[in-house]
Amino acid sequence: MGELGQRKTHGFTHALCSPGTTMGPAFLLAFPLLLALSTPCDACECKIQHPQTFYCMSDIVIIGNILEHGKDTALKRSYRINITQILKIPKKIPPITSVYTPKDWGSCGYEVRTSQQSQLLIAGYLRKGALYFTRCHMVYFWYRLTDEQRLGFQELYKNGCKCQIQPCLLCWRHCPQPDRRECVWRQKDCNYRIWNGDQSLYSMCTPRPDGHCGWTRIDILNYHRETTPPPPRQTTPEMLYIM
Question: Boundaries of each NTR domain copy (predicted)?
């Protein structure tokens, strides 16, 4: 088996046309990335995105455990959640204990009828201080990401948010030359229904010293995580004298 065949592939799911379909645990395990692609049968149409784009376009990115159904309204469905890690969040946001999604299937609402879902990466948007997401946003099991993708969400993707990642959809022709703030995203056989290959699984698009954006392989072996330096030691004249 060749090198590409040995690498991980991460699948996307279509939005199902039946409004009564729900996503149980077997469905989640078989199709881990709950991203709806364009479908002609309803109004829910979404574009495939690079994981860095999911991070940059989202207001908030968390890892959490969905505990149970919350209190639904006529327009939205809610789930109680225990957040285990916050990867991106604006300042002055109150604690989040629930997440919300549209109740209507045609509005890309998400539904799961299980008792629990553990360690889910959720990238969504904020509305009046509450976290919302749809099938077009990223809902993914954290353990299924590559080490490079996990490091990207935790530390590195934020450094590339000034760049734009554009898929090369006309793969049978030459891909267009990117603008200085763009990276052209290529997938094997022009298949944009899965994450496959170096650019999706192991790389990010970042600014370079010349002002152009380009692909960079994430080096997990030599990366040193950012740490907050300790506050300066408070000294008094007496302490200075002793030292």
Answer: 44-161
